[in-house]
Amino acid sequence: MRILFVHQNFPGQYVHIVQRLAQQGQHQIVALGINALDANRPLPEELQYFRYPLERGNTKGIHPLVMETETKIIRAEGCARAAEQLKAKGFTPDLICAHPGWGEALFLKAIWPDSPLLCYEEFFYRAHGFDSNFDPEFDRDWSWQEQARLNMKNAYLHLTLEQADWHVSPTHFQASSFPEHWQRRISVIHDGVDTRRAAPVANPRPLTLPDGTVLEKGQSIITFVNRSLEPYRGCHTFLRAIPDLQRQSPDARIVIVGETKGVSYGSPCPDGEWKDQFLAEIEGHYDPSGVHFAGTLPYEQFLLLLQLSACHVYLTYPFVLSWSLLEAMACGCAVVGSDTAPVREVIRHGINGLLVDFFSPADLASAVSELLRDRDRAASFGAEARRTVERSYDLDVCVQRQLALIDLVASGSINA
């Protein structure tokens, strides 16, 4: 089979699928993307990767509501030109697998109208019930302009949904964000967690943090991970919980992983950085020596930190679920998570973790401290969390399901 993968930062979510397809030894695998390949992410030699340039930037003075759409059109144009060149060389894919999040998939059907298109769908923005209007502290007064902004944010997705032959989404919650009539055409299959690498270790070695602090098994280590520290992932609730955490668990080592500058999803802090704003709120009420900002850790060190963790905290708006939660569960962490829809999909309160009100630092501190005191209960939660990932999110299981879906879409069976 000839398969084309499209992702602006290839391989992205396709890394394991591409590796398994190459192992089968019977496919021509071609990929299109903007960025150079990451040398730290091994890809099969058989893969043919082509980068496409963007020939222009945004129009000066363009209407703000149109800017995002124009950006996606510019990317789609660059991708389509590269696809046209591939077609001129005689390449016609039996299947196109595309992540449409940056617009690249918009014109591929114009190049190859008979090639089935399978799109990876992450999220569809809604005015109510999901991330928008969720956090009263930061949501602005809702207006028709805000509704218009979300409508335009989804505009390219409507076109993609119409053109694609089928869709795949990593979680049921994420799939539920899409209009109901499209949900029937979305298969829910997670990308998968490598449970051999992300696994409990009885006696993990010590870890030295960038600030020189040495962490060892048996310490009261609390872990919190954000790609970038921001309210979307509950950094305000977590940082505000630190004084109570330290009062209830004075020996705790609080380790925060992630970028402390900028944001990944939400709005930037209007005055400096979110980390500094919330730490200023608790200044004088906590011991900074017990709080460690580790920045971004290499993956093996990140896993080691999770293996050392006594309690892992994961908070999120009703938004895309982070891989870090499932990796923590796979490592056998006792998890305290926010009682929000994406977390409820994987954490069952009192069975494989604890759920608390997203907005309550006091409830968060109490739940974490409870698990630091009751190590038997924490161990029980961690073991069940590991079993949850093994049952439903193991990499081998998920990739096999992804490959089966690829066969169905390529053959036209699922869309018959």
Automatic annotation (TrEMBL):
Taxonomy, superkingdom: Bacteria
Pfam families membership: Glyco_trans_4_3 (PF12000), Glycos_transf_1 (PF00534)
Keywords: Transferase
Residue spans crossing the bilayer: none
Record domain Glycosyl transferase family: where: 27-197, 215-387
Entry annotated with the keyword Transferase: yes
Stretches assigned to coiled coil: none
Molecular function, one GO term: glycosyltransferase activity
InterPro entries, alphabetized: Glyco_trans_1, Glyco_trans_4
GO biological process, one term: lipopolysaccharide biosynthetic process
Name this protein carries in UniProt: Glycosyltransferase
Protein species of origin: Parasynechococcus marenigrum (strain WH8102)
